[in-house]
Amino acid sequence: MSKLRQQWSLIILLFVLAAGTALPAQWISAELITADSSQGTRIFNTTQQKNKGDYWKLSQYFMTQQSKTFCGIASATIVLNTLNHRQASALHNNSALWVNQTQVFNTHMPISFKKEVRQQGMRLDQLATLLRKHDLIVTQRFASSSNDINSMRQELMAALRQPHVYVIINYDRSVLGQEGHGHFSPLGAYNQKHDRFLVMDVANNRYPMVWVKAKDLYRAMHQPSDHGHVRGWLVVYAKINKA
User: Which of 65, 111, 220, 231 is within CB 3.0–4.6 Å of 170 for a Cys-Cys bond?
Assistant: First the structure.
């Protein structure tokens, strides 16, 4: 970057700060720690077992999203297969226990919905509806002003600690300093000492799994989607034999 360009960048930054206006999301770079780094490994190893049980279960069925807009489909497929493993044949009427992303996508949903997913992905409420079509119980939560970072932290941590209960988050990548915007991925763990959640990124051909600070994750979810709603998370579990 030339000296003149650096000066102009500094001037713009100072102007924005002086005006009291928030910086664009893509200017914010969260302090991410990759899960496979030495620091990320140390964080995982020092995480209490009760806070990382979901990682071990989900990782057995982890998969990369098969297309650019299938992050929600991939996340749903991972959770479905993880629950199917526990629930035996009960969720799918004695059919095969393992499902792929195409099968999940071909759930009985309107053609208009499928067209929208292929073109631009899913909204949080749409993914919740799709999971319910698979006979799952889904609690949908928005990162709104009535649901602050402390309540988010407590709810996510409580879900991670419950057996056979899983969390899928919907967040804006750009807030974390990554390319892109809306994205879905499952949560695998929470480290209380570092106050970080492990995001199991289903676009792992582009980005690795990362440890994200709770405040950064909340900020990434507290962003409007293309349809005006802020983003958030889903808590998912099976209707039968939950305990």
Answer: 231
* Cα–Cα distance measured from residue 199 to residue 233, given in angstroms and rounded to the nearest whole number: 12
Long-range contacts (CB closer than 8 Å, 24 or more residues apart) made by 14-19 = none
Report the C-alpha gap between 218 and 197 in whole angstroms.
11
CB distance 171 to 159 below 8 Å: no
CA dist 212 and 233 (Å) reads 15
Is-contact 168 186, C-beta < 8 A?
A: yes
List CB contacts of 42: < 8 A, sequence separation 6 or more.
none
Tell me the pTM. 0.82
Question: Residue 238: which of 54, 127, 79, 59 has the closest Cα?
Answer: 79
| DSSP code at position 181 | S
Q: Tell me which fold the domain 31-238 belongs to.
A: Cathepsin B; Chain A (3.90.70)
For the stretch 184-219, pLDDT in tens is: 999 999 999 999 999 999 999 899 999 999 999 999
Terminal Cα distance for the chain, rounded = 58
